[in-house]
Design brief:
- By secondary structure, the chain is of the alpha/beta class.
- The chain has 2 domains: about 30-135, Ubiquitin-like (UB roll), CATH 3.10.20.10; about 150-275, Cytidine Deaminase, domain 2.
- Helices cover about 25% and strands about 30% of the residues.
- Strands 9-8-10-11-12-13 form a 6-stranded mixed beta sheet, sandwiched between helices. A 5-stranded mixed beta sheet has the order 5-6-3-4-7, with helices on one face. It has a two-stranded antiparallel ribbon with strand order 1-2.
- Strand 11 (about 235-240), helix 7 (about 245-255) and strand 12 form a beta-alpha-beta unit.
- Helix 1 (about 60-70) packs across helix 5 and helix 6 packs parallel to helix 7 (about 245-255).
Length: about 280
Amino acid sequence: MNPLVHPVTVLRASSDGKSAHRPDLVAVEEPLEIRLVFGPVSDRQQQALAVTMRTPGHDVELGLGFLFSETIIRSADDVLAVRHFRDADGQPAENILRIELKPEVQFDSARLQRNFYMTSSCGVCGKAALHAVAIEAQPCRSEVSITKEHLLLLPDQLRVAQAVFQHTGGLHAIGLFAPGGTLHLAREDVGRHNAMDKMVGAALHQHVPLSEAVCLLSGRASFELLQKAAVAGIPIVAAIGAPSSLAVEIAEAMGITLVGFLRAQSFNVYTHPHRIS
């Protein structure tokens, strides 16, 4: 049995009035606590930084991507070690991730001004104030472009890569593509923000240049996903679904080409269309 899916029994009802019990699969959702170790060698500190509801798997990438999107780290080189926490018997606690920053990396926990509890549907709901959602990034200047023909081929490639979605229909996915249409990597999660963090963390770990990539979202384009894309320096973001008004505003302000309603035959370009050739 795939550890990312959970078997259940459902009562299947149909329009003809018949019903029957049948086995089904749902996506696994569990909490992950991220603990941060930081400070100079003479004064190391540990702080519980965040709790997120996620689909287990790729936890290290999730942690790295989360720290990067919050601008706590600038690259994977800022991290000294990352592993699941171990209890008194030395057994790993699979739902606690311990990330240790290098001593020279500065971290001011008061600067974040955020309650870092996140649900699987909303990673920004815990922001303590509106100014805490400001984007700490420079507008994208990348001249990367993708042809219309290659862009139209991306949804099918991402769909094939969504292994757990095919069993459950209950996960978001993020794909990272080369401008020529080749899939670099894809990540799934019950939370769209977690899927993005996993993808960014994987790109950092594998040294995939985010500033030369195209990001595809399996659902809608929300404020937070565009915020994370801006911090990562991703120049082109496409979505199968619709963008929100704030997502369009962020894309325009941050120099990101935003595509929505990407289907087999058509799409909408909301901002900076010069990157679609």
